[in-house]
Amino acid sequence: HVQLVESGGGSVQPGGSLTLSCVVNGTTTSLNCMGWFRQPTGKDYEGVASLDPFHGATNYADFVKGRFTISKDNAKNPLYLQMNSLKPEDTAMYYCAADPRPCRFGTGRDSIATMSPLRYWGQGTQVTVS
Fold first, then answer.
1. What's the chain's Rg over C-alpha atoms?
2. Which of 85, 107, 108, 110 has the maximal Cβ count within 10 Å?
3. Residue 84, CB half-sphere, CA atoms under 13 Å: how many?
4. Beta strands 125-129; 10-12: pairing state
C-alpha cells in the first residue's frame, strides 16, 4: 500500500513562486507513474505534470509549461512541484498521485491535462494566487 502526503501550499501574489512536496510512504519500488493533478473550485480535475520515476521522463500540461517543474530526488524520496510565475488561474487544490501502472495520457490537444487518474492520491494542498 502507498500513502502520499503533500505540503507546501499557501497563498501567493501573481508572479510569485511555491514549491509543493509529496512524501511517499509504503512500497514505492513498484511505482511506474507519479504526478501532480489539480482541481480548481467547482471544476474537474486536470493533470499538471507527470514523472516516470525509473527513466526520469517528465511531461507537462500546456498551461504550466515553462513555469512548473516536477522532480524527485530518489535518495531523499519526496516528489516536488516547483511553481514559478504563478497566475490567478493556477488557484486550485493540488494533489500528488502515483500508480504502479505506466502513465496513461489522454488524447486530444493537451494529453497531460487529460491524463487518466492514478491509483494512489494524497489529501491535497491548497494553492491560492491573488
1. 14
2. 110
3. 6
4. parallel
**Beta-bridge mates of residue 7:** 21
Cell of 34: 507519479
Interior/surface letters 8-29, b for 16+ CB within 10 angstroms, e for the rest: bbeebeeeeebebbbebeeeee
**CA neighbor of 22 nearest in space, from 62, 63, 72, 58:** 72
Residue 64 near residue 73 (C-beta atoms within 8 A): no
State the Cα–Cα distance between residues 70 and 48, nearest whole angstrom: 9
Q: Amino acid identity of 17?
A: S
C-alpha cell of residue 55: 527513466
**pLDDT tens, residue by residue, 16-29:** 999 999 998 887 77
pLDDT in tens, 37-95: 999 999 999 999 999 988 889 999 999 999 999 999 775 579 999 999 999 999 999 99
User: 82, 12 in Cβ contact below 8 A?
Assistant: no
